[in-house]
Amino acid sequence: MFRPDERAYADSHVDPAGRYAVRFAAKEAALKALGLGLGGMAMHDIEVVRDGLGPPSLVLHDEAVEVARVAGVTRWLVTLSHTDHVAQATVVAL
């Protein structure tokens, strides 16, 4: 479900659970933005990335690239937020 860089980022924090949870939420939101449900495609094909300078973004891999192309998606708007108990992500496909 998580790509190597996502795991490395989450695991580099004292409490990685929130980082994993918010990435799961972003992947779920991206699937919904593409008109799919949780079973519509492998979550591993959607990667949540941060460059440290701006908002998070998505990088698509494998099947997700083609699904987004067919849907006409060329850009993503992504927000992430989490606490010790809640993870929330908003993803808009443009």
TrEMBL record:
Keywords: Magnesium, Metal-binding, Transferase. GO terms for biological process: fatty acid biosynthetic process. Residues 2-68 form the 4'-phosphopantetheinyl transferase domain. Transmembrane segments: none annotated. The keyword Disulfide bond does not apply. The keyword Magnesium applies. This is 4'-phosphopantetheinyl transferase domain-containing protein.
